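=== RUN LOG ===
request id: a7f3
mode: sequence -> structure
chains: 1
length: 276
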Amino acid sequence: MKAEAAGNAGVDAFKSGDYQRALDRFKESLRLDRATDNSPATLIDLMNVARTLVAVGDPKAAQAYLDEAVELAVVLKNDKMLSEAYATYAKSALVLDNPTDARALIEKALAIDAKTGYKSGARLNLKALIHIAAGRWAEAEVLLADALKLNESSGDKVEAANSLRLLGEVMTIRGEYERAVRYYGAAIEIDRVNADTSKLIVDMERMAAAQSKFGGHYEAAFTLERLFRMYEDMGMKDEAATALDAAIAESKASGMIEKTRRLEGMKATQSSGNRQ
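=== RESULT ===
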């Protein structure tokens, strides 16, 4: 397999959520590009491997590739990739619970972007996430509002959904549950268009929790029943059972007798099916 084909296969696998296959393909592309001393392509490969390692929860391994990527980006005078390397390094530091390093690294990335005139909603989302981890919620909200405008104007739906999701998280932390529901609801609409099931599940779970917090038990029950259907269709029995139990609890809290009976009937049917 040629390096470019391996890299493209890695991108496709990453988009589909098959991170292990993506990692294998990116490493193969890196091996082949190194063998031909193709430095620009090697830099891309290093970044792809590092991003994937962060995605699979191995930030320490990612940092070894990022060290090399930073050095190569400096040699090649590729400011865009240098900024991306620092931003990915910041994400890895955050995963490793090192917010101080994460803040310093994202500031390095943003300083390069300011010098080159590049504006990235993804970078602002990451900086906001770092602020959230540090309890700096007001600053995070301002950053996310700017990030959302930038992402929407550039047509970056993935990052726009990330901005909305993080705004929902900030509102939840501050106890502004109705606002949180609005943000999660907007993120869900984008998740549906993007066909991003993993993020859709996260947003629906968080929205249901926020709905319940401000007394929207009817709405929470409805959200959780939809979530139950999704899990069931995906063959995720344990998650489906948990969502159904939560839907029943919210339905009872809302006083919906008929809906509660219907949901409890679904649970009985599910339990009977699991025993067979």
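=== NOTES ===
The CA atoms of residues 136 and 172 lie 14 Å apart.
The mean pLDDT is 94.
=== END ===
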